[in-house]
Amino acid sequence: MAIKEVILPKLGQTMEFGTIIEWLKQEGDPVQRGEVLFTVESDKATLEVESPTKGYLRKILVLAGEERPVLIPVALITKEVDEDISGYEAGTRVAIQDKPPTEQAVAAQTPEIQKASEISRERIFSSPRARKLAHEKGVDLVLVAGSGPKGRIVERDIVSFLESTPKVTPVARRVAERAGVDLRAVTGTGPGGRITKVDVEGAAVPAAPVPAVAAAPMPAAEVPMSGVRAVIARRMHAGHSETAPVTLTMEVDATEFVALRERLRASLADELGFDIGYNDLLIKLVARALREFPYVNARLDGNVIVQLSEVHIALAVDTERGLLVPVVRNADRKELAEVATELRQVIERARAGTALPDELSGSTFTITNLGMFGIDAFTPIISLPEAAILGVGRIKDCAAVANSEIAVRKMMWLSLTFDHRLMDGVPAARFLQRIKQFIEEPYLLLASRGNLP
Predict the structure, then answer these.
(1) Which pTM does this prediction carry?
(2) What pLDDT is stored for residue 226 in this prediction?
(3) Is there a contact between 2 and 30 (Cβ–Cβ < 8 Å)?
(4) How far apart are CA 347 and CA 45, in angstroms?
(5) Which of 53, 71, 128, 158 is the most exposed place for a label (fewest CB within 10 A)?
């Protein structure tokens, strides 16, 4: 048999799963090498996948709309349109469940499904302490969401999984399986809150009929919690529930900041072909502050606080596919014009859905600016595994005291949410105060390494 597998590609270091959005070729169609076969969506971008060879698309193994782990076969290409592939098909077609399997589902898995689960498990990144605890407690790492660097599973993820798993006696588990009772909805009355047989039998008793009530309003629309929306939901929930978030707010006089932006916009417009923006300046000054306060440019790995040697700043951007975070890498080492150009390029690709996963991940600090929507201050949510996030409000004219006189100044609010596990309030306040100084006196940046121009 002359069979060529079409593999679901790994489009970046952080990509573990992909969803095929559309097949552009159908079974039996001739294909040329380099011809687009299908589009695939990761948690960050939608990209086209080309044929690796010339021949016929003999069999599609994964249908559109299905999510699969990367690096598995999704289709077969043969030299002849009617070539027999029955021998190959039986040993390679796989299916992966979207949700963590129950014990019944695991027992009923076919060898093909178990094989796919093993493939996924082999590519799970986890710390030694996490693997040790998972082995001791009998936890399958496939079922655990990682919050470490690049989605790595760390010890706290195992602990959180164990705490969220209902404690149940073996007899109660068997009764629940036979009765179709969801153990997550059962309150345990046994020692330590353990779910007993009596608890399950009580939950399985049909509820008494209740008086008829008015029908609930019909939904106007139903939006599936999938793709980018599902990723955003998981990360925002993790950023709020798995950290000790504290938000500091500070009012800043941005008069000189605005004046600097106007001067740079006028002087660099012809060279760049666009206007320098406030976000460009914010990325530069925040990168400088992170160099001075390395404990903010950090993350938690198990019980160790790791201070990072590189400064990669993400900017939250609204797109048709949801919230994405294009990253400017090594922002502290780049000139302002370079930062501004790179930021616009990656934002354009993110909005077009063509940005690579690595362009939308790997940041060490995030900035989110809602000032253009008239927002003054808010409480941004930390993007794990980062240690903090800066929220930026609008710039507006206000009456303020300047040089012992009341004058109209351009004021703005900054909101810094930080993880209290990694730093205390005073060090976080010092970091925010330094950003305030750079905004109020931007010439200070010129006296340090990493000048604005």
Answers:
(1) 0.59
(2) 65
(3) no
(4) 12
(5) 128
